[in-house]
């Protein structure tokens, strides 16, 4: 009952005209950026981050949440219409969704995606309202050893599960940890990796890194391929812009199964919505093989409904893990953690006590964002595709200018603009050679936490490394880490065996 009471207070805070406006603006911006090829919610949040420091924290995070949710739907819109997923989380939706669009069922495919996003997102919001306070209570028993184990879990799980190559994932993670150590050590006052450059004594801003990696790197990537990738042909529109009762009944079990698959992945550090969408698609494909005749490969509505619900079911629980534990499980969550720190806030159990209006207003805004997205996207989803009419050179040139303006506005430093350019080139090379971005971001965000926790644990134990396996919570986290690594190794070994045959 206490949780419901706090949620009602959150709704009272979220229903103010200004906060409602920021919900709508966030949903519009997230969807608009999501429909652009190669872009997504993480890039939208990264671009908005420098622009929101003048806002009230609650308003800023309500808008970020709308961008986060809207970006996932926008990614799927382009995956369905143009076979061009905005992010990896929308790849599974292309398999059957684009076939539906090519057969003249684009309105039904978009409606399936919108309803699936709503069901998965609402279920995750309901879960997180009751789960986040419980996670926050549990996390009060966390000490330095437990937080170090949690950070280690995020590092290893993200770098080994998300990346196609474990070595590339670990290399990306190490690069992020290295960037996080640049500057003056807060404990010893020692200069680290700054090479005597005064501008690096305060370290490298996470805003600069995120904008360079997610936005400018993508601009360089698109520019390098713009002459080789002709624009996709448009999809013919026909049919009714809604689902029939038969189609709704066909999709409903897949929506529910996808939601069930996606919910746990919101608190597991495996990169966000990418993994559950493929699991949900694979489950529906396995079930379809038992049908006579099988529908997959012909535009099966279940093949679109399940991954859409699974991907959006991770959003609320991912925000719950961020708010209650301070644990970012995706690139977007890592950027939002940086935003909390820019406002002088630290996600975790104390956040619920120190800023209850922000926390519960934000949780209430999740429900509003889901409703706003359904209202916006059911009747108007196809209109987002018209953004592709903007010539790509002008579009991406504008994004590059916006990146520079945003970074300069936060620091007023020309040196940061050179850093932006250099890291943008690094991001381009990472994309060129298939190095994942998420481990680098999570390494940079959680690196300071891991370092501080490691030092505090060793100081409290007199240098005894047994402190890291001396508590039940740390043992459980490390055991889960070991299981995750073993599952990943076994899965890769089996995949290699199948290739050999």
UniProtKB/TrEMBL annotation:
It holds the Pfam family TctA. The chain crosses the membrane at residues 20-39, 59-81, 109-132, 144-163, 170-188, 200-220, 321-340, 360-381, 393-409, 415-430, 437-454, 466-490. Residues 20-441 form the DUF112 domain. Keywords: Membrane, Transmembrane, Transmembrane helix. PANTHER family: TRICARBOXYLIC TRANSPORT PROTEIN. This is Putative tricarboxylic transport membrane protein. The lineage of its organism: Bacteria, Bacillati, Actinomycetota, Actinomycetes, Propionibacteriales.
């Amino acid at each position: 009952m206490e949780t419901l009471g706090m949620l009602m207070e959150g709704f009272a805070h979220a229903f103010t005209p200004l906060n409602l406006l920021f919900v709508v603006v966030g949903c519009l911006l997230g969807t608009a950026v999501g429909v652009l090829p190669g872009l997504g919610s993480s890039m939208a949040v990264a671009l908005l981050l420098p622009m929101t420091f003048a806002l009230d924290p609650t308003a800023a995070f309500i808008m970020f949440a709308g961008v986060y949710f809207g970006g996932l739907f926008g990614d799927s819109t382009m995956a369905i219409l143009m076979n061009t997923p905005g992010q990896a989380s929308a790849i599974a939706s292309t398999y059957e969704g684009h076939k539906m669009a090519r057969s003249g069922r684009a309105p039904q495919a978009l409606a399936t995606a919108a309803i699936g996003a709503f069901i998965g997102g609402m279920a995750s919001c309901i879960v997180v309202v009751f789960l986040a306070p419980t996670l926050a209570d549990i996390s009060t028993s966390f000490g330095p050893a437990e937080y170090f184990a949690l950070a280690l879990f995020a590092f290893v799980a993200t770098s080994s599960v998300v990346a196609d190559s474990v070595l590339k994932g670990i290399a990306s993670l190490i690069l992020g940890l290295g960037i996080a150590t640049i500057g003056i050590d807060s404990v010893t006052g020692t200069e680290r990796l700054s090479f005597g450059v005064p501008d690096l004594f305060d370290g490298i801003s996470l805003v600069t890194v995120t904008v360079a990696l997610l936005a400018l790197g993508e601009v360089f990537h698109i520019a390098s391929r713009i002459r080789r990738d002709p624009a996709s042909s448009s999809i013919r529109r026909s049919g009714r812009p809604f689902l029939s009762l038969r189609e709704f009944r066909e999709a409903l079990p897949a929506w529910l199964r996808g939601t069930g698959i996606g919910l746990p992945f919101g608190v597991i550090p495996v990169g966000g919505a990418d993994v559950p969408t493929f699991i949900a698609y694979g489950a529906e494909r396995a079930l379809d093989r038992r049908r006579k005749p099988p529908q997959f490969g012909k535009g099966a509505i279940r093949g679109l409904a399940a991954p859409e619900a699974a991907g959006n079911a991770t959003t609320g629980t991912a925000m719950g893990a961020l708010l209650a534990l301070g644990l970012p499980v995706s690139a977007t969550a890592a950027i939002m953690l940086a935003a909390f720190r820019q406002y002088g806030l630290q996600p975790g159990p104390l956040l619920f006590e120190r800023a209850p209006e922000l926390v519960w207003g934000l949780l209430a805004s999740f429900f509003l964002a889901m409703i706003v997205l359904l209202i916006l996207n059911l009747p108007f989803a196809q209109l987002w595709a018209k953004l592709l009419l903007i010539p790509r050179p002008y579009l991406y040139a504008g994004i590059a200018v916006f990146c520079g303006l945003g970074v300069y506005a936060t620091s007023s430093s020309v040196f940061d603009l050179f850093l932006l350019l250099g890291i943008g080139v690094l991001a381009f090379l990472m994309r060129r050679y298939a190095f994942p971005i998420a481990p680098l971001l999570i390494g940079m965000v959680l690196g300071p936490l891991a370092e501080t926790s490691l030092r505090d644990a060793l100081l409290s134990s007199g240098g005894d490394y047994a402190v890291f396996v001396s508590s039940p919570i740390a043992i459980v986290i490390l055991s889960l880490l070991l299981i995750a690594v073993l599952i990943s190794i076994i899965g890769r070994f089996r995949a290699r065996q199948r290739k050999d045959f």
